[in-house]
Amino acid sequence: MPDPTDLQAFAIPDRVRFATDPAGRPLIRVDTPGAHARISLYGAQVVAYRPDRTQADLLFMSDRAIYRDGKALRGGIPICWPWFGPSPAGEVGPAHGFARLRRWQLLETRSDAQHTVTITLGLPRQPAEQFGWSHIADVRLSISVGPTLTLMLTTTNRDTRPLILSEALHSYFAVANLAQVRIPALAGCDYIDKVAGDERATQQGPLTWGRTVDRIYLNAPRTVVMEDPAGNRSIRIETSGARHLVLWNPGTEGAASLDDLDADASRHMLCVEAANTACDPVTLGPGERHTLALTCSVEA
User: Does 273 participate in catalysis according to the annotation?
Assistant: First the structure.
């Protein structure tokens, strides 16, 4: 295996190269005959993905994203691990865990006969007692870039104790006009409304936008299609290993309160996330493994 500190050892001619982000942190550039992606080693975060069949990026990235250690980028696909939402330890730990606030190691790059490039990253075992975390676990993220984008987040419990895990692939999708966006497959699905104090409800009719939307769908299908007529495209989202599908948009008022997002930007993004939330977390016994996966693609 190449030395993880020698990134150039992982380069693939005309496929995988390296650059830096505005903070000088390593960025993986993936260019295939069918798609292009950018992946930050800080947080193992996919920050851009565009298949050749579309001119617009599939993912949303805020123009005001803050490139600074200790701050997750607003957009792309942040990794929420080992908890999703508030820390189980209260204010001791950061929201959505610490994985998105660490530099990951590059473990492998490969390209197959169909020109799909797969990047494998690992979260170094670092003490996290300051966040109320004392478990031992191996965490790997596989990112496959081709006509579709696939992320597979695998956790293996290396401890002698059970590991209670909540997590999410917090994908921000770019849309031309949120007001026209529809996700027909969610009709009739039950959800927890975080904005309404965890009230439970059933989706009746199409989604409506404008105010903050923060919902945990409990019985969503594994495949949903997000229709974006103003952008003349639909985005197909497939999940596995996910008990929940989370929808989040801050609305214009909520976006205005964030230091890394323009108020108007909320009209051009929607988070549709593969998740296992605290309301029904994953429990791994010693030696057990779990994989959370997300695949997204464009349908014309």
Answer: yes
